[in-house]
Known about the structure:
alpha/beta; 17% strand; eight-stranded mixed β-sheet; Glycerol-3-phosphate (1)-acyltransferase; single chain; 8 strands
Amino acid sequence: MLYRLAYWVYWPLFKLFYRIRFIGREHMPLKGPVVLVSNHASYLDPICIGLASRRPISFMAKEELFRYPILKQALPRLNTFPIRRGESDRQAIRSALKILRENRVVGMFPQGTRVKNHDISISQKGAALLALKSGAVLLPVALKGTERVIPLGGRVPRFPRIEVIFGRPFKVIETPGKSRHQIIAEATERIISVITELLET
C-alpha cells in the first residue's frame, strides 16, 4: 500500500522537476525472478528506478538506515530490507533468495555506496552470486543525472534531467570447466561493461 502511494506522490514531482525519462523499459521481464543492478550516485536512485520499473522492487539498503525509528517502520513497507556493508551478511542473502524464489525483483547497488561520478567499479559480487543461486536474470540499469542533484559534499539541490536506462537481461549459468568464482567474476565484469556502455550513450 505504502509502495503504491509513494509512486503516485513521487511521479508528478520527478516528472515536473527532473523531467525524468525511461529508456529500454521493455527489457525488464514482466515475470520471473530478476536481480536488478545499477550504478549509485544519489539517495534518489531507488526512487528513480522504482518509478521506471514495470514491477515492484525489493531494494537492499544499508543497515544504518534502519536505526532511525521512522525509517525502521517505513522501509519494510517500501519493500526494503537491510544489509550490512563491508562484510558477508547471510541474513540479507537469505532474504534476497526468498524474494527471488517468489519470482520477484531484488534491486542492488553493488558499488556498496554512492560515488561522485560515473565510476562504476564494483567491489561486491553478490548480485551475480544471487542470480547464479536463484536462477534469476541479471538486469543492468544505468542512472544518469542523479549524481548532479545534490553532489557528494554539496548542499544546494539542482534539477538536472534524469534518465533511467535499462540494458538487456542475461543469465548467469554454470559452465563446465569454470569455477563458480570465475563464473561470478565474469558476470560481474559484464555488468560493469553494460552499465558503462549505457552511461556513455
